[in-house]
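Response to reviewer comment R2.3. The reviewers asked that we include at least one raw input/output pair. We reproduce the pair for YdhG-like domain-containing protein here without editing.
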Amino acid sequence: MPSKDEKNLAQVIDKLAKMDEPRRSIMRRVHDVIVSAAPDLKPRIWYGMPAYARSASTPALVTLRNDDRMNLAITEKAPFQVAGGADGSLMPAAWYFEAVDEHTEQRIAEIVRSVVD
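Raw output as returned:
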């Protein structure tokens, strides 16, 4: 019998599989980057979106959204740090993307690691 984590992962993979191309391939690539960058995060569905949490019973820290635009977002449950510089006390929380290249993969990995470190 599959574990809760295995069931949750299957739900996320199914959600990604139901997306139209090219978004399906892009979002699957981002999913792979997230689980590689933070292997301790557990994939699950959170408010209908693929998401990643510390466990099956804790709030999601990172979500993937597929609306008018695709985006990676940090939820309010993640530890935030003010941006500083020109952004002052603003806290970055969402990044939109239309494609994923190597540089974007690296930045996504950095963002996700910053949430779990």
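The radius of gyration is 14 Å. Residues 4-116 form a domain with the Aspartate Aminotransferase, domain 1 fold (CATH 3.90.1150). Further pairs are available on request from the corresponding author.
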